[in-house]
Every structure is written in C-alpha cells, then in structure tokens.
C-alpha cells in the first residue's frame, strides 16, 4: 500500500486528495512502518485544501463529505509519537490560517472536533510541540468575529460557561518562552476585540479573572529583576549589565503596551480588574513603599527603579482612575502602604542603603553624613511659609515630600528619577486638573479653562477670579475632587491619609516644586544632563507660576550664574582655551533644543543608560588633558543652562547664539517686576557698555 503512495500522480488534483484520504482511513494504528506515510499525508492534505480553497470548491466539499476532521482526531488518538502530533497541529494551523472561504472557515470552527483538538492532552514537555499547539490556537483566534466566536463557546441561559480556546491558552501566559507569551497575548487580544458581551462577562469571572492577577504578578517579578540589574550596574558598571537592563526595560514596556492594548478593547470590567490588580499587587505593596523603605515583604527594590516603573505605568497605561489614584497616593505617608509588622521606620530614608537619622530640626534630613533642608532656606523670605505646613514629624512626610527631597538631597539617578516622575505627572492627560494643582504643577492655561467654564455655567459668579492672576485653583472644587480620590483610597484599598498637606493651598505646593528645582542648580554633584532636565521642568513651571517664583529665587540663580561665570573664566586660562568658544556655541544650541523640546528625554530608559558611563576622573590623573576637557565641558553645560534660565526668567526668548551681554543687562518684563526687581530703566550715574564703548548716564 505504501509504495503506491509514491507513484507518479498529479499532485494538485481531486484524485490525489481522494487517494490520500482513502489511505489515511485504512490506518488503524500508527507505528514505525507507516509513520512517515501518515506525516506526508497530513502535510499534503493541508496543501491540497489550501489550493482548493483558492481554485476549486470541490476540494473542500470532498473534505467535508469524508469528515476528515474526525479522521484527524482518530489518527491522533491511535498514534503514540510526537511527530504525528506535531504534523497534525501544523496541518490544522496551515489550513485555518490560509482558508479564505467563509463557508470553509465556519465548517472548521463549527465542529466538535476542533474543541477536542484544543483540549487534547498533548505532552507539552516537548517544547516544539507546545510551540505548534500555541500557533494552532492563535490561528483559530485570528478567524474570530462576532459570528464565529459563538461557535467555539458553550452557553447556558445565555451565559458562556465554557470557552476552551481562551481557557487553554491563558494557562501558558507566563511561559518562559517569550514567543509563546507573545502568541498567547495576541490570542487574548483577538478575543477581547471581538466585542461579544457574553464572552466579556466570561473572561472576568472566576477563575478566568485570575489571568489578570497572574499577569501583574508576572510583571512584578520582572520589575524586581530589573531592580537587581540596576543595583548590580551601580556596583559594577559594564556593558553586559547595561545590555541586560535595556532588554529588561524593553520587556517591561512591552508588557505595559499589551495591558494598554487590552484596555483599548473597551471592556469596562477588564479595565477595573487591571486597575485593581496593578494597585494592589504592584503599586501599593511594592513601588510606593520603596520610596522610603529598604525592604517591603522581604523584596528589595530601589526608589529610582520604582519611580521609573511608575512613570512607565502613567505614560503607557491610559486609565483615568489609575492615574488619579497614583497621584492622590502621593499625599499619603509611606507607612500608609505598609502593615504594622512591616513598618520599621527610623526616620525619613531618601537614599536606599544609607540609614538616615532624625535631627533636632524636623525639617532636616541627613544623607551620607550631610544635612539638607527638606525645604531650602529660600522659603523663609517667601510670602508663603512652607515650614508652617511641613513642620511635622519626619514620619508624617508624604511621598510627594519624598520626590522633592530626592531632588534636593538625592544622588544623580534619584534626582533624574524624581524629575521624570514630576514631568510624567505634568504630561499625563488622564490626571484631573485639581490633582495637578495639588501637586503644584498645574499649567495656568488649565486653571483659566476651568475658571472660564465655571463662569459660563454660573458657578458662584467667578468671572472675576478668571480675569485675575489665576494663581490658585478654586478651593472648594480642589478639595472636593482630591478628597474623593483620597476617600476611595481609604474605602476601597484601606489606605488612610491623614496628612496635613491635603488642606494646603495649591500655591504653596507650586512654591515647593519651584524651590526644590532652584536648589537643584546649586548642587555640584549632579551631572549637567540631569540639571538640564531640571531646567526643562523649571521652564515649564515658570510659564504658569510667576507669583511663586520670587525675588530670592532670581537672586540665587544670579549668584549661581556669577559663580559659574568665574569657573568658565578659569577654564579660559586652562588647557583648552582655543576650543572654549566652539564648545560654548555648540552646547548653547543643544541646551536650547533641550529646553524647548516637548519633553526632556524621548525614552524613560535613558535614565538607566548612563550608569556604566565612566568618567576620565576615575581612570586618569587630574592633570590629564582629557580630564581637563571633560571638566571644561561640564562647566560650559552648567553655564549655558544658568544663562538660559536667567534669560527666560526675565521674560525673554532664547537667542540662537549665546548673547554677548549678561542676562542682567537684558530688559526685564513683568515677571521681573512681580519678583520685586527694578524695571524702571537705567538711573543717573549708571554705567553702560555699547559694544566696546563704555558710557555713563549723567542726566
């Protein structure tokens, strides 16, 4: 019989299909003698059915008439070899993927044998077999629509009680093989995007709903793995660990984009499940407490990694309730997210790995032996006194305080992480305006928009408030909406916030942010690139926070600029004076582009990339010309930033080239007047320089 299989015959003919099926039906058991024939017959049948679907419908008619699907199942049951299972799954995948005829697709899916194959007990210890099985399931999902999906489910009283395709697939959602995970996710998206209401209700019922919690649990493990890579790179920088970080970051972001795709299907219950699981399995127990604690549930994760992950979630997972709940959580103290047995606070901890101690001054924290004011000394001369709000026990500090403390006292990575978090919050469209106002980063245009809307609808006749400065948000609306999210935190998640900051004026919060940013520029241990990011954020806030940016802020920027100018003049007498002007012009353009960019960095992963970037100071003697060149470039970058910030703070547009006169000589606008500076013009006896000519005004 088997020799006749190889006789010369028209390969793509109905006779060939008839012959193959006849011979296949004669097989009672698959053994070594006929195994190769069965494999070749299965492969050839898939080719002929695909060919017939495009050229002659009689092929598929004969396929249905002879009930070949039943023969496939019978062959699978009488064979004990993996090779037959592999070929059968491949045959089914090829046919389902390539069939175009609606009638053929309906027959393949509306058949009890398809669910038998889906639920068959294959030996998945064989990785190749598992791969073919998942491909088979994915091929079926690619043909789903509102009509075909009903053929694969069993219903009772109009409710889905069985959906083997989905149930079997999600069992492999956390498989070690990334290709299998990707295929399973593609299958689930195909199911969700069909939009069948009964199926949507099925996927959120127990035990199917466990898929979403397992998804976040798997994601949590990836986050912990990333943190381990970051910690290792900080200790031993090298290209291998950096490559591993990039790969881990890519996978984390891919997972979040998948979650975003799931949400885009518009299944409300799925969105709520994902929100609850992200909050309860990831953000509350791991990410938020890590901003203060060294250990949470015996899991180590650093503050910078936590802030990166929060940024990713806010930027990628577009859920309004999730974004506002995260923002509201920043007004809670870290211990609100930790059970009593896990609370081991010994003061505020801005730097993991360095225990901090509470000093006599409650507004001071100690990092690496150096004391830093939580709110810098600038606050003392401000009309608003932050110490009146913040002067509470250190344990009462909120997570929002932690973000600002990292900026004023953290290391370079912590500063960059906190700046990224504030920037992300500023750019998150899902955040309510009241939440941005509470955080101190609400753009003035959004304040005016809401005030104008309230004026039109006649709420409390607030037209006059709109046409005023708009420096503070409407107190009642601010309190009501923020309190709503805080109340939800308490009732739904058991997180209680008793912070005094909840009742603080938004203008105080804006001042805090500006104060921390201005203080940042005085820190010599922070890289210029990170300072540029801080400059970008300050520039965004200066557009909308004129009142909170006061005279002392301007004076500090001016003093920092003068000091940096002196350092730059020293470099002019140093090793690279001939390159100084060229570097200055180049860095001016680069800084201007960075300051005027839509966001400070294109990708969040950039915060981890400099970790293995060595400095010449670490490997070469201090007198080396390379060290001198690196130092000169750093001085130029800081000088350019401070120069541009001064120009902008005075209300001027940034020129394309570095100006030839200092910022203090540039005419100020109303912002300088609001800050208390003299804008009346030159006085008698004032000395001016017109080009190279020195002049004095004598009246």
From TrEMBL:
Residues 42-192 form the FPL domain. Pfam families: FPL. InterPro entries: ARM-type_fold (IPR016024), CLEC16A/TT9 (IPR039272), CLEC16A/TT9_N (IPR019155). It comes from the Eukaryota. PANTHER family: PROTEIN CLEC16A, PROTEIN TRANSPARENT TESTA 9. This is FPL domain-containing protein. It comes from Salix suchowensis.
